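Postdoc handover notes: sequence design on the structure in folder B. Input tokens:
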């Protein structure tokens, strides 16, 4: 999930590829659910949910493309999508044909930007929640004469 991608620790087999994909995608979804469940403002929550749906559709689109055009196995396709979207890039899979590269130019751009926007909206939710808590505290604060005298 940190997108380091050293290259020497590449998943080597179906089980390890499934594990990496499950870890990355579950981390993204779990992170979203935790943040969305604590969402304060409906509009911000809606933006996060909408971007999560776009992101999931782009993941599915990329996997379907890899299976149909790239003739990859389903597990390999999802692993390639996972490594690409998270910019992990283990280097195990590459796009050789012109059709796959043409698709990848746009798909990588949209999917990576969508992932970044998703995390931006999640951060906005968190900031909004903290600002609301601060505002609530300020509005509930009872000023005394001593407080006013201390300001003078």
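Designed sequence:
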């Amino acid at each position: 999930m940190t997108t380091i991608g050293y290259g020497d620790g590449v998943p080597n087999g179906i089980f390890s590829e499934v594990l990496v994909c499950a870890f990355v995608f579950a981390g993204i979804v779990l992170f979203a659910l935790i943040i969305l469940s604590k969402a304060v403002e409906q509009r911000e929550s809606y933006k996060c949910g909408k971007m999560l749906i776009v992101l999931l559709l782009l993941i599915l689109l990329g996997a379907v493309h890899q299976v149909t055009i790239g003739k990859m196995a389903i597990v390999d396709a999802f692993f390639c999508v996972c490594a690409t979207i998270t910019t992990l890039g283990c280097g195990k899979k590459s796009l050789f044909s012109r059709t796959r590269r043409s698709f990848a130019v746009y798909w990588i751009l949209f999917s990576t930007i969508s992932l970044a926007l998703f995390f931006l909206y999640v951060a906005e939710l968190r900031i909004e929640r903290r600002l609301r808590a601060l505002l609530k505290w300020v509005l509930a604060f009872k000023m005394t004469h001593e407080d006013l005298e201390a300001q003078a």
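Context for whoever picks this up: The chain is about 75% helix and 0% strand. Don't rerun without checking with the PI first.
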